[in-house]
Design brief:
There is one protein chain. By secondary structure, the protein is mainly α. The protein is built from ten helices and no strands. Helix 2 runs antiparallel to helix 9, helix 2 (11-51) packs across helix 10 and helix 8 (156-169) packs antiparallel against helix 10 (200-229).
Length: 253
């Protein structure tokens, strides 16, 4: 038992790991996940509209993209984007691994968000689009102004859930060899574990991930409940008057 505690909950290692994890690792994890979800939302909406197109030549590239990036393991995508592109001479971010990390997670996120947005848009009554078109709006304008905003509202819980997934998948970018000041939670913990042969830093990193994901999970559940109930609170049943208590008169009411 003592060995177990020393391996996973060593007080000295925890005290050394937490300051770096909270100041550098937490910041970069949120930066990577935040930029990835922004990129994923923009690309995901575009892909969703392509998937809903009546033209096969528009739908097909989007369907291939979504199926490929949803089918590949995330670690393979991170390796192909972060290590493969620079090796092939394609260096949109130069030698900065942080840009490739955001791109890799964003591409994965976009594939899942495309299906989320597609289902949300399809849940909007078709009459909304027809009414907009009857007012003289073009198809793209009606989608942008009327349909897409309603579709996004329908999928807000799923959108928040995808952000949680992006936070967890940001741990895979340790493969890209982030530099000092760019390291995310897992990268810092993994370096510390390799140097000390003690897993307390990994436990500390896990606690930091839980600090992010548990409140977000609670938020997702509350948001989902609010959207399903329309923000209405359930009425409490009226209290039953005690036996022998006279009913209030009209004047008293």
């Amino acid at each position: 038992m003592h060995l177990f505690l020393q391996t996973f909950f060593n007080p000295d290692e925890l005290l050394k790991a937490f300051p770096v994890l909270l100041t550098e690792g937490l910041r970069n994890t949120l930066l990577i996940a935040g930029l990835a979800i922004v990129f994923g939302v923009v690309l995901g909406v575009l892909l969703a509209m392509m998937l809903l197109s009546h033209r096969r030549w528009v739908r097909l590239p989007a369907r291939i993209y979504v199926d490929v990036f949803r089918g590949l393991p995330a670690i393979v995508t991170v390796s192909l984007v972060g290590l493969g592109l620079p090796s092939a001479g394609i260096r949109p971010f130069g030698r900065d691994p942080l840009g490739y990390a955001v791109l890799a997670i964003g591409l994965i996120s976009a594939a899942y968000l495309a299906e989320i947005f597609r289902s949300g848009i399809q849940a909007v009554p078709a009459g909304q689009l027809s009414a907009a078109r009857s007012l003289g709006m073009s198809y793209l304008t009606a989608m942008r102004v009327i349909v897409v905003p309603q579709g996004v509202r329908n999928v807000l819980p799923a959108l928040a859930g995808q952000f949680i997934i992006d936070i967890k998948e940001s741990a895979l970018v340790y493969l890209l060899g982030l530099g000092l000041g760019q390291r995310e939670l897992y990268f810092i913990a993994q370096e510390r574990q390799a140097a000390t042969y003690n897993s307390s830093a990994l436990v500390a990193a896990g606690a930091c991930y839980l600090m992010l994901t548990i409140p977000l999970t609670f938020l997702v559940n509350r948001l989902d409940l609010r959207l399903r109930t329309g923000g209405r609170k359930r009425n409490k049943p009226a209290a039953t008057p005690a036996v022998g208590t006279p009913a209030p008169s009209v004047m008293e009411v």
